[in-house]
């Protein structure tokens, strides 16, 4: 009997090769040995997933310096049928590179992704006070721009190891203003069944307030506080239909299959006119949530059993 070879999986990521997004994808064990597809922007990556051209896409969602990646948050809020299935942390390091023969004192135009440039601005202002910034679409594209004569770039902000991909020389290392900067990436697929809890998980939601009134946000937060669910991210984004309307991007400690988290999400669903469940997945830092005894899964189950007995007329004694 003939056997068909197993289909290779395809992963989209912000390219070209050598980006921080590729570094995040390298952490995905099931992606090793599969087809990796570099794309030009986040919208293209997610469209690959929606159309089925790719099985999953790696996208940046949050940076420890600049906060949430708003274009990613807005896309996940408005594109149906997507699910976060994993998160990955990548330390952010930068080097300044140039074509062979160019010295630091020759640099006047610096190419760099806007986020990277913002994180290296202090160093650049000190080393080359009169420099001019030329935005690039990615950290690796900044290095590629060195060889585009029309752009007249002298140096580029790029990730370490860029010299493995382009014939450049490193003018300076460790130029980021914050050496502890980290970018959080998420792996996004089409909607799939939720994986089993690991004990160190995160649940992501996007929630709209039911109305613009005093205390509405507090009512939303109380859904989590009353169940002992800690939030690791709470960010507001405009809905866009009119002034004063916002949705909230929420990351909560725990898994949707944890009783306290499920109960909180049910409370949010009753409260909000629009809830987008983005997924429950293992935390990249593997930190387990601290749970008080009153919020343990068994306490929720015992309470439900007690209520059922009350309704059925069973004497709990």
UniProtKB/TrEMBL annotation:
<feature type="domain" description="ACT">
    <location>
        <begin position="205"/>
        <end position="283"/>
    </location>
</feature>
<keyword id="KW-0057">Aromatic amino acid biosynthesis</keyword>
<dbReference type="InterPro" id="IPR045865">
    <property type="entry name" value="ACT-like_dom_sf"/>
</dbReference>
<keyword id="KW-0028">Amino-acid biosynthesis</keyword>
<feature type="domain" description="Prephenate dehydratase">
    <location>
        <begin position="10"/>
        <end position="190"/>
    </location>
</feature>
<dbReference type="InterPro" id="IPR002912">
    <property type="entry name" value="ACT_dom"/>
</dbReference>
<comment type="pathway">
    <text>Amino-acid biosynthesis; L-phenylalanine biosynthesis; phenylpyruvate from prephenate: step 1/1.</text>
</comment>
<dbReference type="Pfam" id="PF00800">
    <property type="entry name" value="PDT"/>
</dbReference>
<dbReference type="GO" id="GO:0004664">
    <property type="term" value="F:prephenate dehydratase activity"/>
</dbReference>
<keyword id="KW-0584">Phenylalanine biosynthesis</keyword>
<keyword id="KW-0456">Lyase</keyword>
<dbReference type="InterPro" id="IPR001086">
    <property type="entry name" value="Preph_deHydtase"/>
</dbReference>
<dbReference type="InterPro" id="IPR008242">
    <property type="entry name" value="Chor_mutase/pphenate_deHydtase"/>
</dbReference>
<dbReference type="InterPro" id="IPR018528">
    <property type="entry name" value="Preph_deHydtase_CS"/>
</dbReference>
<protein>
    <recommendedName>
        <fullName>Prephenate dehydratase</fullName>
        <ecNumber>4.2.1.51</ecNumber>
    </recommendedName>
</protein>
<dbReference type="Pfam" id="PF01842">
    <property type="entry name" value="ACT"/>
</dbReference>
